[in-house]
Amino acid sequence: MQEADIRPAEMFKESLRLDQEDIARVLAHRSQFVRVSCPACDSALSEPAFEKSGFLYERCGECRTLYVNPRPSMEVLSEHYRNSLTIEYWNENIYPASEEVRRNNIFAPRARRVVEICKARDVGLGSLLDIGAGFGTFLEELQKLNLFEALYAVEPSSKLADTCRKKGLAVMEELAENLKIDAPVDVITNFELIEHLFEPLAFLKHCHRLLKPGGLMILTTPNILGFDLLVLGALSDNIGAPNHINYFNPLALKILMQSAGFTVLETLTPGELDVDIVKNKIKSGEFDVSTSPFLKEVLVERGDSLGGAFQKFLADNLLSSHMWVVAQRI
Ligand SMILES: [Zn+2]
User: Fold this and answer.
1) I want to staple 234 with a disulfide (CB 3.0 to 4.6 A). Which of 50, 163, 206, 318 is the partner?
2) pTM for the complete prediction?
3) What is the b/e burial string over 138-147, where b = at least 16 CB atoms within 10 angstroms of the residue's CB?
4) Ligand 1 centroid distance, CA of 37 (Å)
5) CA of residue 255 to ligand 1 center, whole Å
């Protein structure tokens, strides 16, 4: 799988253009931005990192989380997610165009991995709640495996919630923070969600309450100490407020999960795209590799023969920028 397979280049360009319109609308509410302490460890010790598209990023002096500060209030963020042109464009164009590649390379393996994790941890395959279900492809793949007794999608964006409903999924169109359910569940998953949240700790505490004792929380999020994010910094397309406002790392996420009452069982970075993403930035001329002879050697001069092995090295050593965390409500 390559970056262009899941983000067709021309469509991705259009989504970046729409993103600028979304950004302008959010920045118009700058007077409602609020300062926060570190979203992972709550430390107030931070130093400025950089500015991008009008948003200021700071780095926690204690746990090295990168976060947008000051950040749009919860109300401004909710309004943004209700009306985002970019999300609508992904729902109508990029997700449909890339769904089969995503299904085969991301969602089917993801569904299998979730089942393997549950089995390895001896957690019952009863009920599973996928928060931030998006286009619903992950739950469709899980449904095909026919192992869980009940699957629920939680999706606050009305367009994406509609897509999930059309796929026959049980959908709760609700912000996760406001979610109420009748009975606690065995497993909660959320993929690429907590980097979007105004207050990740409150969200995770709420998830803790929604789980049965012994239940599993399985989540993915960017790892700011992963290769492409470390190398590209502000140049990375993944660095993009107001959608992404929290960038954790394995240690920071462990601190955060523990504060919410979870025990972290496992942290993995099985990412596959770091090398491809950096190579694409070199090709496009946005990232000048001439001052990094080592990267030039590994990614450009010997890229064809070393790229795969280098990506595997990153994934095996918690150095990929895509992170999985498995935690349990003890
Ligand atoms: Zn921190």
Assistant:
1) 50
2) 0.93
3) bbbbbbeeee
4) 8
5) 9
